[in-house]
Amino acid sequence: MRATPTAARDRRGSPPALREEPTVGEPHPPTPSAVPRPAAPGTPPPPALRARSLGRSFGRGRSALTALGPLDLDVAPGEFVCLVGPSGCGKSTLLRIAAGLLRPGTGELEIRAAGPRPAAMIFQDYGIYDWKTVLANVRFGLDVQRVPRKEAEARARSWLARMGLAEFADAYPATLSGGMRQRVAIARALAVEPEILLMDEPFAALDAQLRTILQDELLDLTQHTRTTTLFITHSLEEALVLGDRVLVMSARPGRIIAERRPPFGRPRSGAVRGAPQFAALEAELWELLRGQVDGRPGTTAEVPA
Ligand SMILES: Nc1ncnc2c1ncn2[C@@H]1O[C@H](COP(=O)(O)OP(=O)(O)OP(=O)(O)O)[C@@H](O)[C@H]1O
């Protein structure tokens, strides 16, 4: 899937950075997926997600607001990348561009996909359908993919079992707790076996204990499935527990100003929260982030490694 710059499509010639577009419910048409070719021996595989000079503005003229970029980003196949940054720096905008829900204003973002379902997105507010049963929710993406009904049902039930929800298959979401609803959303996203999982603060609405439990479950799941994941969070702890890499974004317009690789091997568990380096890394990231939030000088110039 390639999200091309607005400029390439704009026959009226309006400046790409200033063009306002509908943002919700109007996915831009994906261009045909790139079929990955095998990498030459010894060379790293090409990135699963690649963004170059990616930028996005909203509004026109004087009221135009530059939300994001320019930003370069590579996410390797199977990598779990966490994005942290001050509120309003463009994190969701980046994710929505990756999901194909929003066009870039400048630059491009490409997802290398072998299959018909390159990306699945999970939001903070679950994004599940209240009028469908739990099973129908999890089966939804498979139905859209036209997976035969029997197979879809079996795959959906197997994901429900994995998420500890087997006995709630016929329940409606309104009867579930927040944590259970988010598990349904995760099961639905993973059931379609996406090339890349895009998660926008998926645990933000949950209480601290549930959040920890779901973090540990997600860790376990993604280490098994090796699903490439781009994960937005305001929680540095969450980013350090889950991420192979943590990217820090600047204040709006968001750019990547620093990168850290938590020194915890894989497979890892939530026990890394107690590792001696954990608190130090969290404090270091917090310093970087605080420089962006309160605009203190001297903390913005770091370039990602
Ligand atoms: N559809 C839109 N129209 C106009 N402005 C928008 C639109 N979507 C986002 N913005 C603006 O773009 C900027 C970035 O928004 P975005 O939601 O991407 O930030 P964020 O980093 O995800 O924020 P938060 O951490 O608070 O969720 C904000 O100033 C926001 O008001």
From TrEMBL:
<keyword id="KW-0813">Transport</keyword>
<keyword id="KW-0067">ATP-binding</keyword>
<feature type="domain" description="ABC transporter">
    <location>
        <begin position="49"/>
        <end position="276"/>
    </location>
</feature>
<feature type="compositionally biased region" description="Pro residues">
    <location>
        <begin position="27"/>
        <end position="48"/>
    </location>
</feature>
<keyword id="KW-0547">Nucleotide-binding</keyword>
<dbReference type="InterPro" id="IPR003439">
    <property type="entry name" value="ABC_transporter-like_ATP-bd"/>
</dbReference>
<feature type="region of interest" description="Disordered">
    <location>
        <begin position="1"/>
        <end position="54"/>
    </location>
</feature>
<dbReference type="InterPro" id="IPR017871">
    <property type="entry name" value="ABC_transporter-like_CS"/>
</dbReference>
<dbReference type="InterPro" id="IPR003593">
    <property type="entry name" value="AAA+_ATPase"/>
</dbReference>
<feature type="compositionally biased region" description="Basic and acidic residues">
    <location>
        <begin position="8"/>
        <end position="22"/>
    </location>
</feature>
<protein>
    <submittedName>
        <fullName>ABC transporter ATP-binding protein</fullName>
    </submittedName>
</protein>
<dbReference type="GO" id="GO:0005524">
    <property type="term" value="F:ATP binding"/>
</dbReference>
<dbReference type="InterPro" id="IPR027417">
    <property type="entry name" value="P-loop_NTPase"/>
</dbReference>
<dbReference type="Pfam" id="PF00005">
    <property type="entry name" value="ABC_tran"/>
</dbReference>
<dbReference type="InterPro" id="IPR050166">
    <property type="entry name" value="ABC_transporter_ATP-bind"/>
</dbReference>
